[in-house]
Amino acid sequence: MSRIPHVPMKHFLSIAGLTLAASSVFAQFPGVTEQPPADLKKGWDSITTREAKEILTYLANECEGRGSGQPGFQKAADYVAAHFKSWGLKPMGDNGTYFQNVPFQVTHFVDAGSELGILGLDKSILAGKGFRMTTISTTSSITGILAVVKVTGDSAKFEEGSLTGKVVLLYADRVTPSLRNAISRQNPAAILTVSSTIPPINYNATRVTSATPTAPRRVRVPMGVITDHAAAYLVANLDMVDANIAPEKGAPITLSRGFVRLKANVETKAIGVPNVVALLPGSDPAFRDEYIGIGGHLDHLGKQGTVVYPGADDDGSGSTAVMCIAHAMATNPKKPKRSILFMTFCGEELGLIGSSYLVNHPMIPLNKMVSELQMDMVARDSYGAQNGDQQRMDIVQENRDTIRLVGSKRISTELDKVIQEANKYVGFKFKYDAEDVYTRSDHYNFASRGIPIAFLFDGFTPDYHQPSDTVDKINFLKLANSAKLYYLTAYAISDNPKPPVHDVVAKGR
Ligand SMILES: [Zn+2]
Which listed CATH number (1.10.10, 3.50.30, 3.30.479, 3.40.1350) goes with 106-268? Predict the structure, then answer.
């Protein structure tokens, strides 16, 4: 997809010749001229598109998709912690660190004892030589008919049921996620993609336990890569017949008369994956023991096989905004009266695991958290079907300066009003049409504890959860303005004599 222009060129040119002071007038969305209160200006001015771009470029491009339990996630966590430290924030993790370790287990495929062969023949293809599994969660012994699928182009249609229970040998010019999904939907026993080389060992993180039950994850079809040579051996030694598939019903498939057997060994070990947490202690002793949480999730889908999911918007953008707000508050001479807890979570994509662990093992008394402000995807202009609904088609031109404000009226309508007031200085057009994602990010674990939450969310694009969620498509003005909005919101909540009133207590949690 091509890069989406976010700010008209004329606008860039017009600020180029102005002084620094005057240019900050244009830092909000067009049309907003009101300046924030003078005593918040220094922190406000520190939140820039340049800062946002620097941080997000690192998180999206240098951390291999930030998969929980993968090395790239730890790299990102180290980066966030180093910044929190440099801004003088108080570490709130385990043993005086910024890391609250969440128990996970990682699984990975092991070559030793794993093999692929033809039932009835002695010779086997050894793992690490002729094939290797890239996605598999348990030690398995799989027996099935071989189905050879040859695909040209990006996507393919398959006759319903044509691959069920079979070991798919996939020849394709390009294996896109949509092609993989199309095959997976037919419930094959395994998918082996034919390639000239086999990939390195891949680590997958799964959760050990979670105190908050979440929806069961879909079991994924075991996937791996097989060399041309090994694939040719299988085909040559099996009797292959064409499946009778009418061309309009799906891709041609050839099936073996005999069976192949795949033995796959998987090792599991327990590890800790951190939430990164830091505190800006409140400036007023009378309010200091009350807290405002500001959160985003640092993890994304990581590296799956050889494919990296950069997760620039999801949720590199929210994590970046959390960091920009932390920096701004650390920079501003006037500090908030109440304490601010900055949180970047792990394991969100695996089922809100990091935030679930945090609310079950809080480093502050949760009944003293007066609001949680969440950002998950705050830097794209939505377009296409929203949440998979073809009746809700967004148009990019209408969403340059929009953002979804989710859940902000569910527990405290006052919280929503505080955000609307702060928005006078920022100029978002709020949409309230995405309550269907209310349970789908970390704030939900706080809301479940009765804490008033607001969730900023930019809506869906076709890049959602795809390797194409890249940094070049980011609207940095929207990202910086999300940070600015919550910066002002957090100050407003912090300095109000009373925390947001719970006026809708029982409804809609
Ligand atoms: Zn996501």
Answer: 3.50.30
